[in-house]
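Newbie here. two chains, one complex. Structure please?
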Amino acid sequence: MTNKEIQEKVIHTLAVIFDMQTAKISPETNARSLARWDSLNQIKLTVALEEEFDLEFEPEEIAAMTSVKAIVDVISAKMNN
Amino acid sequence: MKELTYSQIIAENRRLEKLAKDKPLRILVVANTVVENLRDYLEYELRSHGMHAAVDIAAYDNAMQESSRLQHDVLILWLDTWNLAPALHTGHLFEDPEVLQALEKNVKTQINTIVKDNEHLPLIVINTFNNLLDPGFPFKKSNMQTLAGNLNAYLYSISAPNVFVFDTGHILLSLPEKSAISRKQFYLFNTLYTNLFFSRYSHHLKFVLLGLKGKTKKALIMDCDNTLWSGIVGEDGFDSIRMGYDSPEGRPFHEVQQMLLGLARQGVVIGICSKNNPKDVQQVIDHHPDMLLGDENITIKKVNWEPKPHNVKQIAKELNIGTDSLVFWDDNEFEVQMMREMLPEVLSFQVPGKTYEYPGVFREQMGWFFKRNITAEDLQKADLYKAQSRREKEKDRFTDITEYLQSLSLEIIIEHQPQKHLGRLAQISQKTNQFNLSTKRYEVADIKSMIADEHTDVLPFHVKDRFGEYGLTGLCIVRYDASTAFLDTFLMSCRVLGRQLEQAFINHLLARLREKGVSRLEAEYVPTPKNQQVARFFGEMGFAARETNEGTTVFSCQVKHFSPASTDFITISSSNDE
């Protein structure tokens, strides 16, 4: 999976969880700027991403996943290992 | 049916929400742990089965504050043992038995208060306590385990009729620990449960909630070969089919037949729909030593070579129930697919190819027949439906329907001691969909208070004819305000429709109102997807109609101007006369 493909899938998953249009989400979208990205939705998001990418995040990875770009980096690093 | 991923469930749930038209069942989850994802699973599970629901999650760990006099329909109390007190599972504080006992007492008082405060709710679901996180040792209980055990004993001692205890241990035992709970989530987010757990929880809870709205199933239609027994009677022969406990091939089928017997005893109608020679099947029913089901449990049989959807439709017609009240089992993929295509409202299941999986899979779906309280009437329902089936056959011989109805010696007996039938009255109020003018759903407590109210008459009635008793199958509730009477509820079970009994009862009611000096009767028709057949009922009897903006119609009639259509072939008496 290329980073671009990962990013598309991440944005799609975010759009579903946060009930937003994909066009409104960019790599820069982050938890601080988006009100809906609260701790409850963070649980939903990590569970959904684990399922979509068929992998398991470590606690420190989850803690780092606070923007689209950061999520893509974490997933890409895991998938290329 | 393939499993959806969590994102797909969220998306699908949003789509279903937009389609929903009826008023949602409002469910509040009060929890001392994070159960946010439950909302998606529970709403999806209900909405995908035709029941609109809206789940709210109350503020975290505020059980007492969030549970006082609720406006919801259902309260789910989800209390995890580990968070009953700060750091309970780490234990030190609770080594002192007095501290532990004080905590136990406090939690019981909280639960009791919540239950008392919400007596008006149709349903309160309370989860059992567990000792996850501190399971103790095989030879020594942990404090958490002792506490959970005592609290559970308390839960099961609650006698409030609206309280249901959900044994979460049932789910925990059916899943490997790692797929039911997540320690990672616990330490990160204060929630132990996985989405799979929430999905299983919603699956089981669905049956109780659907039951609340009368959406459970009524009849179970079974194929015969490789469904009631192993083998094909028409090919392998009478002696080669297996359904006995003592043969490995037969044992799963023995178990399924046992479950069928249990369901029949609860009043679920069991039917057979099989492509076979009727004689072959009848011989098995009559003479096979291992056949548990007999003619006394099998209400209806369609053994022929007709397409099964045709037979199943016929079964629904003869039993006078909707096809959406039916569950169908068959081992043949073709038959199951055809049923799903032609009659998608019939819930159709295929017997698993690995027959050792069959009893387990079958048991999972028994919840469709869940009943809140089993009444005496349910216990004799198989007989009632069988008499119904005989009556349908009898019909063939009359020239017209009036002649037939006259031949039945129909009787309505008004019950003068409604307080003796509270469970049954609440049940018919909750379950009757077709002939139900206002479709108001009442609980036992509602009925009780209406009986006690001097301005309200609660008039249940029994129906019988020369073939037998239909039981308590009708309910009329009338409220009085000065010289006007309001028909709050008028419903009749579908078993007794098509006999002009409704007309006879209204004639009787009007005569009764006249005696009481009531000058005017008002009645309201509230349309639902299922009660179309009564839309014109009052109009046909000459009541004046007035539409309201919510789609309901208010009918009214001057008592002295009412001219009844004759129903003199129906006798009306009251239970005191007997």
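Moderator note: Helices of chain A lie at 3-18, 39-53, 59-64, 68-79. The two ends of chain A are 12 Å apart (CA to CA). Thread marked as resolved.
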